[in-house]
UniProtKB/TrEMBL annotation:
<dbReference type="Pfam" id="PF00231">
    <property type="entry name" value="ATP-synt"/>
</dbReference>
<dbReference type="GO" id="GO:0046933">
    <property type="term" value="F:proton-transporting ATP synthase activity, rotational mechanism"/>
</dbReference>
<dbReference type="InterPro" id="IPR035968">
    <property type="entry name" value="ATP_synth_F1_ATPase_gsu"/>
</dbReference>
<comment type="subunit">
    <text>F-type ATPases have 2 components, CF(1) - the catalytic core - and CF(0) - the membrane proton channel. CF(1) and CF(0) have multiple subunits.</text>
</comment>
<protein>
    <recommendedName>
        <fullName>ATP synthase subunit gamma</fullName>
    </recommendedName>
</protein>
<keyword id="KW-0066">ATP synthesis</keyword>
<dbReference type="GO" id="GO:0005743">
    <property type="term" value="C:mitochondrial inner membrane"/>
</dbReference>
<dbReference type="InterPro" id="IPR023632">
    <property type="entry name" value="ATP_synth_F1_gsu_CS"/>
</dbReference>
<dbReference type="GO" id="GO:0045259">
    <property type="term" value="C:proton-transporting ATP synthase complex"/>
</dbReference>
<keyword id="KW-0406">Ion transport</keyword>
<keyword id="KW-0375">Hydrogen ion transport</keyword>
<keyword id="KW-0813">Transport</keyword>
<dbReference type="InterPro" id="IPR000131">
    <property type="entry name" value="ATP_synth_F1_gsu"/>
</dbReference>
<comment type="similarity">
    <text>Belongs to the ATPase gamma chain family.</text>
</comment>
<keyword id="KW-0139">CF(1)</keyword>
<keyword id="KW-0496">Mitochondrion</keyword>
<keyword id="KW-0999">Mitochondrion inner membrane</keyword>
């Protein structure tokens, strides 16, 4: 009788529903790299936030002064007029929570309430607002500005935006600007600010208090206060963006750390299961050969 001895070769098979060690190792490495990136972005945002908050203290008197003039002169806009101009103040950069989407949502609510949206026009500051609003309201956009957010906004940038608004061919009856007002490191508020032209200022009843004011003076002041308001809005939005990005990256770093702990635990359990299974197969094979 001839007997044939069969050599037992242990095989490491994958259990259903359980990832292999290689897959877990690859994912663990990728999550660790993402955590390094988010941690670095948090540190960069913290430095930019400190600089933006310092610059905001200098820029706030510009906007508050222009708003105080509107309040004292009792200048009001007509929100029911058909020709509406809506200005969105955002930036080109993302990864900062709902800073940009909240501004776009506020504009969408106004456009949805209007009977005829064709009469409303949009001026978008930043590529983020352009990307969100151009899907539904591309025909309403009359101009947009980019390269916003890479550097700290300056009064020259605000002057360029204000001058383009005044020189636009669109004759609007009411204009509103939407931006985020910085409250604290973890909070901001989406705000609506009226923009008034020279004609609205001249029609105000309280404006007669200012004696000997000629037309050229009103024109120059209107250009300056519009640039001041835009500068104020851009600074407020930039500070809100940096604080929100810092908070978002801190949360992302924390979530990545929790995921690394879970993946490490899964990796150790899977490795131990593989080692135990191989030992059992070796012992079973040795027992079968005896």
């Amino acid at each position: 009788m001839f007997s044939r001895t069969t050599q037992f070769i242990p095989q490491c098979t994958q259990v259903r529903g359980m990832a292999t060690l290689k897959e877990i190792r690859v994912r663990l490495k990728s999550v660790t790299n993402i955590q390094k990136i988010t941690k670095s972005m948090k540190m960069v945002s913290a430095a930019k936030y400190a600089r933006a908050e310092k610059d905001l203290k200098v820029a706030r008197p510009y906007g508050l002064g222009a708003k105080a003039f509107y309040e004292q002169a009792e200048i009001k806009g007509d929100s029911t007029s058909p020709n509406q101009l809506l200005v969105a103040v955002t930036s080109d950069r993302g990864l900062c929570g709902g800073v940009h989407s909240n501004v776009c949502k506020a504009i969408k609510v106004i456009l949805n309430e209007m009977e005829n949206t064709a009469d409303a026009k949009l001026i978008l500051i930043g590529d983020k607002s352009k990307a969100m609003l151009s899907r539904l309201y591309a025909k309403n956009i009359i101009m947009s500005f980019n390269d916003i957010g890479k550097k700290s906004p300056s009064f020259g940038d605000a002057t360029l935006v204000a001058q383009n608004i005044l020189d636009s061919d669109y004759k609007f009856d009411n204009a509103r600007m939407f931006y985020n007002v910085f409250k604290s490191v973890i909070s901001y508020k989406t705000t609506e600010q009226q923009i008034h032209l020279k004609e609205s200022i001249m029609k105000s009843e309280q404006f007669s208090v200012y004696d000997s004011v000629d037309d050229e003076t009103v024109t120059n002041y209107n250009e300056f206060q519009l640039a001041s308001l835009v500068y104020f809005a851009m600074k407020e939005s930039a500070t809100s963006e940096q604080s929100s990005r810092m908070t978002a990256m801190e949360g992302a770093t924390k979530n990545a750390g929790e995921m690394i702990d879970k993946l490490t635990l899964t990796f150790n359990r899977t490795r131990q299961a593989v080692i135990t299974r191989e030992l059992i197969e070796i012992i079973s094979g040795a027992s079968a050969l005896e």
